[in-house]
Amino acid sequence: MITARVLSLEQLEEIAGAECLAAMLSEFSCPLNKRVEEFIRENAIQSERLGSTVTYLALSAKDEILGFFTLVLKPFTVAEAGLSSRNRNLIKRFSELDEDRKTYTAALYLIAHLGKNFALDEARRISGSELLGLAFDVLRKARKLVGGKLVLIDRESDQPKLLDFYQANGFKSWNRRFSKKDAIEYDQMLCVLKDEPTPGEPLS
Q: CA 108 to CA 73: how far, in whole Å?
């Protein structure tokens, strides 16, 4: 198990300075997902300054970037029609029903990006489950301040290994959506945020 401390981009920029932060991010490597690599290298700082997202870095004792995750608080609206009984019972626990529109709306946490740094040799890399656990630690702190229990991840549908990974960490497939911007079909996966410091719990 890798020991890591977690700092937001804003916190690290205050400590190290903008130039040092940019240099650290430029060395991040994620060959399995180039969109994740491109985001942390080129877009994460600007997105944080705009207030669109908050990105957290997992740092080693030597201040190496082990990985990162990007969080967003967003509304989630789904039509009541067509929901399975299991999904309807789930969403009712965490949302409000609009009687006129027949839709449920909940505030949830989106883990928009999650990536570990392959620039480090294998012995020094954090595991995906450890990195996800750090993201849940941050979300538990947020929940105490603003509430919220549902966590969403958009998984690329053509990545079966990611399906196995997220299912092993408590996520369940909810819905599929197609992004015209990315030209990618996503499997929207949900989990319920647990109180104790472990990754998500299965939906019930």
A: 6
DSSP label at residue 45: H
Residue 204 has pLDDT above 60, yes or no: no
Confidence of residue 52 (pLDDT cuts 50, 70, 90): very high
Quote the pTM value: 0.90
pLDDT one-digit tens code per residue, 102-124: 998 888 999 999 999 999 999 99
**Tokens 């990985």 correspond to what residue?**
67
Closest CA to 199 of 142, 131, 145: 131
SS (H, E, C) 113-177: EEEECCCCCHHHCCCHHHHHHHHHHHHHHHHHHHCCCEEEEEEECCCHHHHHHHHHCCCEEEEEE
Nearest-Å Rg of the Cα atoms of the chain is 17
Provide the pairing of β-strand 150-156 with 103-116: parallel
